[in-house]
Every structure is written in structure tokens, then in C-alpha cells.
Design goal:
Order of helices and strands: HHH
Number of helices: 3
Distance between the termini: 42 Å
Strand content: under 5%
Length: about 50
């Protein structure tokens, strides 16, 4: 929400918005890479058996 509000401000430069979006997305990508094995195991374990 904060990134959206900042991007609606007409005085904000595009490179600042891009920098903030990278800072926002980087932790999500990093955690996905670190916990990919656990994510795959949980998806396999939650499969419907029958």
C-alpha cells in the first residue's frame, strides 16, 4: 500500500519507485529460494490421497 501511495504522488521520480519496488520484492524472492525445499515438501504432503 505504501508503494502504491508513493507512486501516485506526481513528484516522485520513476527511478525512486523502481528502487523501492526492488527493496519490497527482494525479501520475498530470497525467502522463496531459501525455503524452496520445504515449500515443495508441503505441497507434496498436502496432496489428496484416495
Amino acid at each position: 500500500m505504501a508503494l502504491y501511495n508513493i507512486s501516485n504522488n506526481m513528484g516522485t521520480k520513476q527511478n525512486a519507485i523502481m528502487g523501492l519496488s526492488v527493496v519490497t520484492i527482494a525479501p520475498v524472492i530470497l525467502l522463496s529460494i531459501l525455503f524452496s525445499k520445504q515449500l515443495k515438501q508441503s505441497i507434496v504432503a498436502s496432496g489428496v490421497k484416495g
